Amino acid sequence: MTRALPVLLVAAAVLAPPAHADGLRRWWRGDATEEYWDGPCEVKLESKRREFKREVKCKDGVGATWRGEWKREFRDGPCTVKVEATREELKEEVKCEGP
After folding, report:
1. What stretches of the chain show up as alpha helix (H) in DSSP?
2. What is the pTM of this model?
3. Of 84, 78, 83, nearest to 95 (Cα)?
């Protein structure tokens, strides 16, 4: 059993998805715009220096991974994150302070 624990920890680290697999880049540099489809949902990413915006639109809510309508605002280190969800759309905006 003692030998199995390190093996399980390594397997969990290798099989775990990357923290930013959804395209959210915490420390972007420069301007970039990207649009693509994720199943039935249209995804738009926009980044500027120290700002990031993601919009996900699912027609009639089909394919949406969020439920209900809600808003949330919180801090993530030097960044302020605002998330707003409706049945058809998810908007996420990140703005960072600092040098």
Report:
1. 4-15
2. 0.64
3. 78
